[in-house]
Amino acid sequence: MYAGLTPAQTKRAIKKDLEPSYQGTFVGARRYVLDTFASTKSAIVKRRVSQFVTSAVCPTCHGKQLKVESLSVTFEGFDIAEFAALPLDQVADIARRVIADDRVPVEGTAGEALDDASRARARKARVDAGGASHDAAPDVRRTSNISAEKQAAAGRLCAELLERLQPMIDLGLGYLSLGRTTPTLSGGELQRLRLATQLSSKLFGVVYVLDEPSAGLHPRDLEALLGILRGLKQRGNSVFVVEHSIPVVKEADWLVDIGPGAGEQGGRVLFSGEPSGLADVKESVTRRYLFAPPTPVSRRPREPHGWLRFADVSRNNLHEVKVQFPLGCLTAVTGISGSGKSSLVSQAVPTLVEAALGRSTTAELEDGDDDVDLLLTGDQGSVHGHVEGGREGLGGLRRVVAIDQKPIGRTPRSNVATYTGLFDHVRKLYAATPQARRRHYKAGRFSFNVAAGRCPTCEGEGSVMVELLFLPSIYSPCPTCHGTRFKESTLEITWHDRNIADVLAMSVDEAHEFFADETEIERSLHVLRDVGLGYLRLGQPAPELSGGEAQRVKLASELQRAHRGDALYVLDEPTAGLHSADSDRLMAHLQGLVDAGNTVVMVELDMRMVAQADHVIDLGPGAGDDGGRIVATGTPGEVAADIDSLTAAYLRDVLAGRS
Asked: Helix, strand or coil for residue 293?
């Protein structure tokens, strides 16, 4: 570049090899997009450039990924790509049909005496089928499709295939296909797949440790899960299960109850023994749900102040579904695993509402979501449909909030105090102290994300990484700040004799007393205590929070502004992994969101929670291609009376006080 020169002058300058005013390399847009898409490790950057890249089905293999020669081989009329796309239920049916097949081979029955004419006919048939022309040297490589050899081999292979498929089908995974990629599976589906794999291995003398195996399971599938666990036990294995589902807990031979509370208030073994013995442990919270007699649910559903209607909704196994949700109510969406609940509630509804609001329909990805393939989604991964009436049909909704169990942050810099916003008020409080004003400290000085006040050694992390040769790296407390994250000069500023690091080390309960006179801070702390998180430290790093804790932190943040009454809250199995007591507490707060004028839609499989909803939508009747349709809709009592619903019987028991 020659600044200020005309094109003619620039040509003369280049010929004379004069030094340019600026020299650099300019990357073309096409190359930048393709190189970035191929090499970036950031899902956010990949999402940004993916809007300039389109994908199409390969015209040669038509999306089957294999050569024509490989696809020319078929089994029962399916090439290997078509076979891999079949649901496990259908694959099992094919395997059973092949095992039971009694077709007679062309060559005749083994050992049968043949005359010359019959032998000649058999030889001709064998040659026509591609076999050898002489009896003494049979060619086993080229035989008829229904030859005895191939039938025997197919029967043996199909028997082994069926043996591996049956545990998966029993666990309610028959709707999955063989070619389904693991990143598209939920955590519950992955766990059940691993469990089915172990069952087919026929090992004994093994200790199996399972964390919430019932998560994501419809009550109908619980019996199959219990059958799998019993099978593992009967083979001589030991099964240790972390579980909150009362039906599963009742099946245990030995029960260990830990508590009595959470965090620092828990961690003690309250009981270890046969389940009946827990009835005498008064400290146990589990005891109330395990032995208390169930009571009928008597709650009058709210009257909606409008309806949010969707038309032609298509996503995964949902095909042009028409559905409506009552506004100002709590709606529970039920159905067996794979019926399309998450596709409707977590994916289609937020996307279509955002589109009606005139916002981007592309969900934001957090950095590190590397499992999402942005090119190989195709039409199967896109959402189609619309809100009837467009923006006018939203009934006053202005925002969509997803409250899930994903982490509130991926690094230790994100914590309870920063996520809820109360730390902003704490930093302003410290910046307003006389000592801070004399030193001209602003609020940013008390943030471990700002270089001015944080420890320069660990850069606000509180720990440093020590690299060990040939061994994994370890983390140790920072030798300069000793884990406080701040400079010594920052820690010299105190408020009521406590510095900023002391505040982050407080539990929510302690901070509630410490900041009792600070209205802005107290409001956030009160809500955190209200959702049962009083035991958490304010500075507790986000990666240390469980899924249920992260979900309640998000809920607490929303409860602070729930008075707006213009939000649609979307939750996907909010009680998964929660103790029954925590589920009841969560439900009380969801009812509070609705009482404030908001609309809540949740996917839920705990019938105790479903019975407390104002409106129920049951999807099914089956999973995969057999699901994706609305089977029943109405109040809990109306759905419980529907004879076509698989959920009805279990909901009916809860409403009647039977469990």
From this structure: coil
Q: What is the DSSP letter of 155?
A: H
Quick one: pLDDT at residue 438? Answer: 93
Residues 97 and 153 reside in one and the same domain: yes
pLDDT, residue 514, reads: 92
Residues 432 and 385 in one domain: no
Residues 93 and 153 in one domain: yes
Residue 61 lies inside a defined structural domain of this protein: no
Are 331 and 398 in a shared domain?
A: yes
Instruction: Say if residue 49 is exposed, middle or buried (CB neighbours under 10 Å; 0-12, 13-18, 19+).
Output: middle
297 belongs to a structural domain: no
Check whether residue 426 and residue 383 sit in a common domain: no
Q: Identify the residue whose tokens are 């102290």.
A: 433
- How far from the centroid of its chain's Cα atoms is residue 163's Cα? 28
pLDDT of residue 440: 92
Q: 426 and 519: one domain? A: yes
Q: How many CB atoms lie within 10 A of CB 657?
A: 12
For every residue of 443-477, DSSP letters joined together read: GGGG-TTSTTTB-TTTTTSSEEEEEETTEEEEEEE
Q: What CATH number corresponds to the domain at position 494?
A: 1.20.1580.10
Provide the number of structural domains found in the chain: 5
Identify whether 352 is part of a domain: yes
pTM: 0.75
Q: Identify the CA nearest to 308 among candidates 296, 322, 294.
A: 322
Cβ–Cβ contacts within 10 Å for residue 579, how many? 17
Cis upstream peptide for 260 (omega within 30°): yes
As averages over each run of 10 residues, the pLDDT of the chain (659 residues) reads 90 90 87 88 82 86 90 90 92 91 47 52 60 53 65 88 88 85 74 78 86 82 84 90 90 92 82 92 89 79 93 89 94 89 90 85 40 41 84 88 80 84 92 93 90 89 81 83 90 93 92 90 88 87 82 84 79 84 87 91 92 94 85 94 90 82
My answer on whether 324 and 377 are in the same domain is yes
Secondary structure class of 270 (helix, strand, coil): strand
Beta pairing class for 629-634 and 615-620: antiparallel
For the CA atoms of 457, 463, 468, 472, the dihedral, rounded to the nearest 10 degrees, stands at: -140
Tell me the one-letter amino acid at 213.
Answer: P
Half-sphere exposure of 321 (CA within 13 A, CB side): 27
Range of the domain at 12: 7-50
Task: Verify that 285 and 319 share a domain, yes or no.
Answer: no
Angle between helix axes 187-201 and 219-234 (nearest 10 degrees) is: 30
Instruction: State how far the Cα of 583 lies from the Cα of 586, in Å rounded to an integer.
Output: 5
- Orientation of helix 148-170 relative to helix 219-234, angle to 10°: 110
For residue 272, the domain's CATH number is 3.40.50.300
- Position 659 scores a pLDDT of 61
What was the pLDDT predicted at 258?
A: 93
